[in-house]
Amino acid sequence: MTSERIRIALQKSGRMAEDSLSLLKNCGLHIDRSKDQLFCRVKELPIDLLFIRDDDIPGFVSNGICDLGIVGENVFAETHAAESEGFAASVLERLGFSLCRLSIAVPENGAIKGIADLAGKTLATSYPHLLRGFLKQQNIEANTLLMTGSVEVAPRLKIADAICDIVASGTTLTANNLRELTVVLKSEALLIRGTQQFSPEKEATIHRLLSRMRGALMAQDSKYIILNAPRSAVAEITQLLPGCDSPTVMDLNKEDMVAVHAVCKEAVFWETMEKLQSVGASAILVVPIEKMTA
Q: In the chain, what are the domains?
C-alpha cells in the first residue's frame, strides 16, 4: 500500500546529496533519478525519495510530510533551536560524512583576539539561533546580523566585525583574510525521523534500512587484513591492528607459524603495515569490504 511507503527527504544538490545517494546505493537500493527530478521511487524497499532544499528537510520531517531525512547537523540544530516548541523530529543515526564545523571567524589582523573581545561587536551569520545560544553560554552580549549567503564578505564590507559560518577546509576564510576564533558546533550528516508513531510496517522498513546503513558505513571504514606470523607474535600483532577486537588465528603447515585474519574497523596505513612487519608479520594483504552486517 502506498500509505505504508517510507518517504525520505534528501538535499537536492551538493556534496551531501551525492554522499546521501551513495550511502543508499551501498544499502542495495537502485535509484534512477534524472538531474532535475524531485521525486523518485525505490524498487527494492517501500521507500520514496523527495529532493528538497537542505534547510527545508527538518521541517518536512517534523511536519510529517516526510518520515525520514538526511540533513547536516548544523541545519538540524538551527531549526531545532528556532522551533523548539512543537518541533517533532529527532536524530535516529549519526552518519559520519559531510563533516564540517560552525565557527566564529574574525579578520586576521583585527582587534578581536579572543572570545571576550566579541562583546559589543556585530557578527554576521546564517545561524542566528545557534550563535545567540553560544554567546549566551559565554555571557557575551553582541549583535547578530542575519545574512543568507556570502557571509564571509561582511567584515570586508564593514557591516560586521566578525562572522559565524560553516567551515570545511578553511579555504574560503583564508581567501577573505579571516581566521577561526572558536568552534560553535561540530557538524556531520544525520539521519532524522519524525517523532510521531508509525505503523508496524513502516517501523519494519525503517529498521531494515537502518541496519543496512550501519552495515554500509561499517564496511566503508573497515578493511579485511590477512597475514602470516609466528604464533608468539599474535598478541603484539593484535595490539597493532587498528579497531580489531579478536582476530581469527589458524595454524599453517609450518612449525609455529599461523595465519591471522581480522576485520579492522579503522584505516590501515602503510605505517601500520611496517609496524606489523617489524614484529614478524609477512605476506600482509589488506582487502576492502563490500558489505557487512552491524
A: 2-97+189-219 (3.40.190.10), 100-187 (3.40.190.10), 222-288 (3.30.70.120)
